[in-house]
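User: What would this chain look like folded?
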Amino acid sequence: MIAIRWALSILYVVQNAVMMLVMGIVFLPWAIFSPKGAMMACKSYARWAIWTARWMVGIRSEVRGTVPTDAVLVAAKHQSFLDILMIFNAVPQPRFIMKYELMFTPIIGLYAWRLGCVPVRRGKRGAAIKAMLEDVDSGRVAPGQLVIYPQGTRVPAGQYRPYKVGPYVLYKETGQAAVPVATNAGLFWPKGTMLRTPGLAVVDFLDPIAPGRGQEPFMQHLETVVEDRSNALMREAGFDADAIR
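Assistant: Here's the prediction, encoded as C-alpha coordinates.
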Protein backbone atom coordinates (compact mmCIF):
# COMPACT_ATOMS: atom_id res chain seq x y z
CA MET A 1 0.00 0.00 0.00
CA ILE A 2 2.74 2.45 0.93
CA ALA A 3 4.56 1.64 -2.33
CA ILE A 4 1.43 2.52 -4.32
CA ARG A 5 1.02 5.74 -2.35
CA TRP A 6 4.62 6.69 -3.07
CA ALA A 7 4.21 5.91 -6.77
CA LEU A 8 1.05 8.00 -7.06
CA SER A 9 2.64 10.82 -5.07
CA ILE A 10 5.67 10.95 -7.36
CA LEU A 11 3.42 10.84 -10.42
CA TYR A 12 1.35 13.67 -8.99
CA VAL A 13 4.41 15.83 -8.27
CA VAL A 14 5.84 15.24 -11.74
CA GLN A 15 2.63 16.01 -13.63
CA ASN A 16 2.17 19.12 -11.46
CA ALA A 17 5.62 20.39 -12.42
CA VAL A 18 4.95 19.67 -16.09
CA MET A 19 1.59 21.45 -15.96
CA MET A 20 3.17 24.48 -14.29
CA LEU A 21 5.65 24.70 -17.15
CA VAL A 22 2.99 24.19 -19.83
CA MET A 23 0.60 26.77 -18.36
CA GLY A 24 3.46 29.18 -17.79
CA ILE A 25 4.41 29.03 -21.45
CA VAL A 26 0.86 29.07 -22.83
CA PHE A 27 -0.20 32.11 -20.79
CA LEU A 28 3.14 33.93 -21.12
CA PRO A 29 2.24 36.36 -23.95
CA TRP A 30 -0.92 37.45 -22.16
CA ALA A 31 0.83 37.64 -18.79
CA ILE A 32 3.62 39.85 -20.17
CA PHE A 33 1.15 42.46 -21.40
CA SER A 34 -1.48 42.21 -18.68
CA PRO A 35 -1.57 41.26 -14.99
CA LYS A 36 -4.98 39.72 -15.77
CA GLY A 37 -3.19 37.13 -17.88
CA ALA A 38 -0.86 36.31 -15.00
CA MET A 39 -3.81 36.01 -12.63
CA MET A 40 -5.70 33.72 -15.00
CA ALA A 41 -2.63 31.50 -15.43
CA CYS A 42 -2.03 31.15 -11.70
CA LYS A 43 -5.70 30.60 -10.88
CA SER A 44 -5.87 27.90 -13.56
CA TYR A 45 -2.78 26.17 -12.19
CA ALA A 46 -4.06 26.32 -8.60
CA ARG A 47 -7.37 24.76 -9.62
CA TRP A 48 -5.58 22.07 -11.60
CA ALA A 49 -3.27 21.18 -8.70
CA ILE A 50 -6.16 21.05 -6.22
CA TRP A 51 -8.36 19.00 -8.56
CA THR A 52 -5.68 16.45 -9.46
CA ALA A 53 -4.66 16.12 -5.80
CA ARG A 54 -8.17 14.89 -5.08
CA TRP A 55 -8.29 12.03 -7.56
CA MET A 56 -4.59 11.15 -7.80
CA VAL A 57 -3.49 11.16 -4.15
CA GLY A 58 -6.77 11.48 -2.23
CA ILE A 59 -6.29 14.98 -0.83
CA ARG A 60 -9.65 16.73 -0.65
CA SER A 61 -9.74 20.48 -0.10
CA GLU A 62 -12.21 22.59 1.85
CA VAL A 63 -12.35 26.33 2.43
CA ARG A 64 -14.20 27.43 5.57
CA GLY A 65 -15.20 30.78 6.99
CA THR A 66 -15.95 33.99 5.13
CA VAL A 67 -13.53 34.56 2.27
CA PRO A 68 -12.59 38.27 2.12
CA THR A 69 -13.36 40.08 -1.12
CA ASP A 70 -12.37 43.63 -0.16
CA ALA A 71 -8.91 45.12 0.48
CA VAL A 72 -7.59 43.40 3.61
CA LEU A 73 -4.46 41.90 5.06
CA VAL A 74 -4.57 38.09 5.19
CA ALA A 75 -2.32 36.68 7.97
CA ALA A 76 -2.11 32.96 7.36
CA LYS A 77 -0.64 29.85 8.91
CA HIS A 78 1.81 28.30 6.43
CA GLN A 79 2.46 24.56 6.56
CA SER A 80 2.54 23.56 2.91
CA PHE A 81 2.54 24.66 -0.72
CA LEU A 82 -1.02 23.37 -0.70
CA ASP A 83 -2.26 26.11 1.63
CA ILE A 84 -0.78 28.69 -0.78
CA LEU A 85 -2.76 27.15 -3.63
CA MET A 86 -5.96 27.00 -1.60
CA ILE A 87 -5.76 30.61 -0.43
CA PHE A 88 -4.77 31.82 -3.89
CA ASN A 89 -7.70 30.00 -5.43
CA ALA A 90 -10.16 31.21 -2.79
CA VAL A 91 -9.59 34.98 -2.67
CA PRO A 92 -10.31 37.15 -5.74
CA GLN A 93 -7.18 39.33 -5.88
CA PRO A 94 -4.34 37.71 -3.92
CA ARG A 95 -0.92 39.34 -3.55
CA PHE A 96 1.71 37.52 -1.52
CA ILE A 97 4.55 38.77 0.64
CA MET A 98 7.22 36.33 -0.56
CA LYS A 99 10.90 35.46 -0.26
CA TYR A 100 13.09 37.65 -2.47
CA GLU A 101 14.91 34.61 -3.87
CA LEU A 102 11.70 33.27 -5.42
CA MET A 103 11.62 36.21 -7.82
CA PHE A 104 14.50 34.55 -9.66
CA THR A 105 12.76 31.19 -9.97
CA PRO A 106 11.81 30.36 -13.58
CA ILE A 107 8.11 30.95 -14.31
CA ILE A 108 7.20 31.56 -10.65
CA GLY A 109 9.28 34.73 -10.45
CA LEU A 110 7.85 36.29 -13.60
CA TYR A 111 4.27 35.58 -12.65
CA ALA A 112 4.78 36.75 -9.07
CA TRP A 113 6.12 40.04 -10.41
CA ARG A 114 3.17 40.48 -12.77
CA LEU A 115 0.73 39.71 -9.96
CA GLY A 116 2.25 42.43 -7.79
CA CYS A 117 3.68 40.15 -5.11
CA VAL A 118 6.05 41.87 -2.68
CA PRO A 119 9.53 40.30 -2.34
CA VAL A 120 11.41 40.61 0.95
CA ARG A 121 14.98 39.71 1.89
CA ARG A 122 15.50 37.43 4.88
CA GLY A 123 17.70 38.70 7.67
CA LYS A 124 16.97 42.35 6.90
CA ARG A 125 13.76 42.85 8.81
CA GLY A 126 13.84 46.65 8.91
CA ALA A 127 14.62 47.00 5.22
CA ALA A 128 12.08 44.32 4.33
CA ILE A 129 9.28 46.04 6.22
CA LYS A 130 10.22 49.40 4.67
CA ALA A 131 10.16 47.84 1.20
CA MET A 132 6.76 46.25 1.86
CA LEU A 133 5.30 49.56 2.94
CA GLU A 134 6.80 51.41 0.00
CA ASP A 135 5.35 48.89 -2.46
CA VAL A 136 1.93 49.11 -0.82
CA ASP A 137 1.96 52.92 -0.56
CA SER A 138 3.24 53.45 -4.09
CA GLY A 139 0.32 51.60 -5.60
CA ARG A 140 2.58 48.98 -7.19
CA VAL A 141 0.58 46.45 -5.23
CA ALA A 142 -2.94 46.69 -6.61
CA PRO A 143 -5.90 46.73 -4.19
CA GLY A 144 -6.82 43.27 -3.08
CA GLN A 145 -5.92 40.72 -0.45
CA LEU A 146 -2.31 41.07 0.68
CA VAL A 147 -1.22 37.70 2.09
CA ILE A 148 1.55 37.47 4.67
CA TYR A 149 2.81 34.53 6.71
CA PRO A 150 3.40 35.71 10.30
CA GLN A 151 5.96 32.97 11.01
CA GLY A 152 7.93 33.86 7.89
CA THR A 153 8.22 30.38 6.43
CA ARG A 154 6.56 26.98 6.22
CA VAL A 155 6.30 25.39 9.64
CA PRO A 156 5.73 21.60 9.70
CA ALA A 157 2.48 20.41 11.27
CA GLY A 158 2.78 20.20 15.04
CA GLN A 159 5.85 22.43 15.28
CA TYR A 160 5.94 25.99 16.55
CA ARG A 161 7.81 29.08 15.43
CA PRO A 162 7.39 32.56 16.94
CA TYR A 163 5.27 35.10 15.08
CA LYS A 164 7.06 38.09 13.54
CA VAL A 165 5.99 41.72 13.70
CA GLY A 166 5.52 42.20 9.92
CA PRO A 167 1.75 41.60 9.94
CA TYR A 168 1.22 44.24 12.60
CA VAL A 169 3.29 46.84 10.75
CA LEU A 170 1.25 46.35 7.58
CA TYR A 171 -1.99 46.26 9.58
CA LYS A 172 -1.12 49.56 11.26
CA GLU A 173 0.23 51.40 8.22
CA THR A 174 -2.46 50.34 5.75
CA GLY A 175 -5.30 50.84 8.21
CA GLN A 176 -6.91 47.67 6.87
CA ALA A 177 -8.54 44.84 8.77
CA ALA A 178 -6.52 41.65 9.14
CA VAL A 179 -8.08 38.26 8.45
CA PRO A 180 -6.38 35.37 10.29
CA VAL A 181 -6.27 32.03 8.45
CA ALA A 182 -5.71 28.59 10.00
CA THR A 183 -4.86 25.36 8.19
CA ASN A 184 -3.98 21.69 8.56
CA ALA A 185 -2.65 21.27 4.99
CA GLY A 186 0.82 20.23 6.14
CA LEU A 187 -0.54 16.91 7.38
CA PHE A 188 -1.28 15.79 3.84
CA TRP A 189 1.27 17.73 1.76
CA PRO A 190 4.25 18.00 4.14
CA LYS A 191 7.42 19.97 3.70
CA GLY A 192 10.52 18.14 2.50
CA THR A 193 9.01 15.02 0.94
CA MET A 194 7.19 13.98 -2.22
CA LEU A 195 4.83 11.72 -0.28
CA ARG A 196 1.23 12.92 -0.28
CA THR A 197 -1.24 11.54 2.30
CA PRO A 198 -5.01 11.23 1.73
CA GLY A 199 -7.33 13.33 3.86
CA LEU A 200 -9.27 16.57 4.12
CA ALA A 201 -7.06 19.66 3.87
CA VAL A 202 -8.74 22.78 5.27
CA VAL A 203 -8.02 26.48 5.21
CA ASP A 204 -10.27 28.40 7.58
CA PHE A 205 -10.76 32.17 7.26
CA LEU A 206 -11.39 33.43 10.79
CA ASP A 207 -13.09 36.56 12.09
CA PRO A 208 -11.35 39.77 10.93
CA ILE A 209 -9.33 41.88 13.34
CA ALA A 210 -10.66 45.41 12.96
CA PRO A 211 -8.18 48.29 12.53
CA GLY A 212 -7.00 50.16 15.59
CA ARG A 213 -5.41 47.60 17.92
CA GLY A 214 -2.01 48.13 19.47
CA GLN A 215 0.93 45.88 18.65
CA GLU A 216 0.83 43.59 21.68
CA PRO A 217 -2.92 42.89 21.70
CA PHE A 218 -2.91 42.46 17.91
CA MET A 219 -0.02 40.00 17.86
CA GLN A 220 -1.30 38.06 20.87
CA HIS A 221 -4.77 37.72 19.39
CA LEU A 222 -3.46 36.77 15.93
CA GLU A 223 -1.18 34.04 17.25
CA THR A 224 -3.78 32.65 19.66
CA VAL A 225 -6.61 32.32 17.15
CA VAL A 226 -4.45 30.98 14.32
CA GLU A 227 -2.58 28.44 16.44
CA ASP A 228 -5.63 27.28 18.37
CA ARG A 229 -7.73 26.85 15.24
CA SER A 230 -4.92 25.15 13.29
CA ASN A 231 -4.42 22.70 16.15
CA ALA A 232 -8.17 22.05 16.21
CA LEU A 233 -8.15 21.33 12.48
CA MET A 234 -5.24 18.93 12.93
CA ARG A 235 -7.05 17.15 15.77
CA GLU A 236 -10.10 16.91 13.53
CA ALA A 237 -7.88 15.07 11.05
CA GLY A 238 -6.66 12.69 13.77
CA PHE A 239 -3.39 14.42 14.66
CA ASP A 240 -2.75 15.77 18.17
CA ALA A 241 -0.55 18.80 17.67
CA ASP A 242 -0.46 19.61 21.38
CA ALA A 243 1.08 16.23 22.21
CA ILE A 244 4.45 17.05 20.62
CA ARG A 245 4.78 20.77 21.35
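The beta strands are 59-65, 72-76, 94-99, 118-120, 145-148, 178-183, 199-205. If you want, I can go into more detail on any region.
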